[in-house]
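[job 4417] fold queue: 2 targets
>>> target A
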Amino acid sequence: MERSIIFFDLDGTLLNDEKQVNESTREAIAALKEQGHIVAIATGRAPFFFDHIRKELDIDTYVSYNGSYVVLEGEVLFTNPLNAQALQNLTDIALQNEHAIVYMDHEDMRANVPDSERVNESIGTLNVGILPSHDPTYYKDRFIYQSLLFCAEGEEQPYESLVSAFDFVRWHPFSVDVLPSGGSKFKGIGKITEKLGIPPERQYAFGDALNDLQMLKGIPNSVAMGSGLQEAKDAAKWVTTSNNEDGIAHGLKLAGLL
């Protein structure tokens, strides 16, 4: 079998609802590697949010921040930071509306407010054991690859003037990802597959949510989790069982890789 590359989303896909890797998933990934395939991660998470998962599964190729920070075999391949002036404008509007922001680079994150219940609750759902400390100027002297804007559904209207610079993708009732406009996991994946020279027919992707749609539509061999959103299922070639029910192993069988 020729070498293929398989990209896995994390939350709701590679991870079960307890944010753990199922034993069947661990065994399936080991089997892929034994066959000579490349196993990679494609996530909206920051790199420091899944260090432990990469170490657990021995994965050194990944697309993070929904395509804004791409690493191939442990080396940075591509970055796409947020526009600095637009980020300043976002900060100004957020302060006027009393909405918290978390600024995230490739190593750490800081919040523009000292303590926020919405920040702690939202990030706490990821079970990463990390919360941002306070530094309202963190964005001023470094590249920021993603921000988290903390506003409830329906409170996005003040930020509509920034849509030419940013995409806003809701991931929690209290929070949206702020991404460079036009960025996506799929574009980040393209940087890796182009560098490796792997054609579309040997590219595979697993996902479950709105930030996976371009990836699931763009990669011919795509698999949506049975526990995922209907939009993800509609975009994918195959639909497997849930992330709690051996969905990765079953999906790899559907795709003919196991």
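>>> target B
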Amino acid sequence: MWTITGFADEVADDFEEQLALMTELGVRFIEFRSAWGVRVLDLPDAQLRLAKQMLDDAGICVSALGTDLGKVRMDDDFTVHLDRAHRAADVAWFLETSEVRGFSFYPPTGEDPAMYRKQVIDRLGRMATIVDQAGARYLHENEKGIYGDTPERCADLAAHLDPHTFRLILDPANYVQCGVRPFDEAYPLVRSATVYVHIKDATFPDGTVRPAGQGDAQIPEILHALHNDGFDGYLSVEPHLGAVDAFGALSGSGPWRTAHEALIDVLRAEDAEWA
């Protein structure tokens, strides 16, 4: 059975508004990226405690921390970033989640990403080891522009890092924005390491984001294949149907509903079970 979760911060900055819509829609998990306009790793301890109490009161759990780990340049100070990984471990433990979303660094503009392969693997391994101390895994998202934005490099990272501490998120729309057909070209390479899926669609050639099943990201094909092989992970609604902001996008409650309904339509067509 699949479990629906999502980036509730696309509903509103206010955490109470986020949880209210999740409750209305029956979504019992969130991918916690920000609250009150503050990134989850930057929330003061008092606000973090308040967020945990609000989550508990609403009966909503955290499927993953939507952190910005690894979303920095290769020539940025990595020592500072390791401190952020330690913070992620602490927050993951406090919010009782076993998954930490992260990235794989931006190579310098114009340089061949392959030059940085060894360094990227080393850095990811160190961060994954840190979050593992809190019983969490580092889940790598294939975002455009980072080292791991192609299925070949994502598969290579997964093959060379400890599978107990490092796995992959499959974001079909992000592959479209890199000129990759997600099911035909990416899925065969990354499926074995994929444990979590972001649900947003996108169109060729401009990468415009659309609700699930309304673009070129081959989401029905991907979900059909996942259904057939018994995938039982999270499907995370990431609408991106509003203005892009520092966290991703502020879509609002209406577009969030639209994105959620589009996913449900695809699941119904697949005759899949979800929670």
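[job 4417] complete. Note on B: Residues 3-270 form a domain with the TIM Barrel fold (CATH 3.20.20.150).
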